[in-house]
Amino acid sequence: MKVLVINGPNLNLLGIREKNIYGSKGYKDICEFIKNKAEELKIDVEIFQSNIEGEIINQIHKAYDDKIDGIVINPAAYTHYSIAIYDALKAVNIPTIEIHLSNIHAREEYRKKSVTAPACVGQICGFGYHGYAMALEAMIRVVNNLEV
Ligand code: DQA
Questions:
Q1: CB atoms < 10 A from the CB of 4, how many?
Q2: Which of 31, 68, 106, 132 has the most other CB atoms within 10 Å of its CB?
């Protein structure tokens, strides 16, 4: 099973940016955490990060060509306004789980709305970097058509 993890803008600065909201673990360490969890679950994982909307869209298109089984995406700020990322997810029709480190529903009004979540099977938020592990576990059930 092949899963692509996509991280959007400013997530490369995890460990530096607003630690009180996003935690003190650095981006590289979070990537290591994701890779270790994937190995434990016997999932083939690829991690992609970009600060550029079009690059994220190209990567979603590439996931289709690469026959990726599932996408875990933290679109970061694009969550709240990128119809283009929503359209790309709908276009490739690959099971996708949206994840956020912070609880976006307990923050500013403009963060409560996700335009990308309706293209996803579900959303995990508010559990920090552990949300990525939760998403990988959930993805096994989704891809194998097990009851969720
Ligand atoms: C975020 C939440 C977004 O609102 C914000 O723009 C981010 C990170 C999160 O993981 O909590 O960059 O996606």
A1: 22
A2: 132
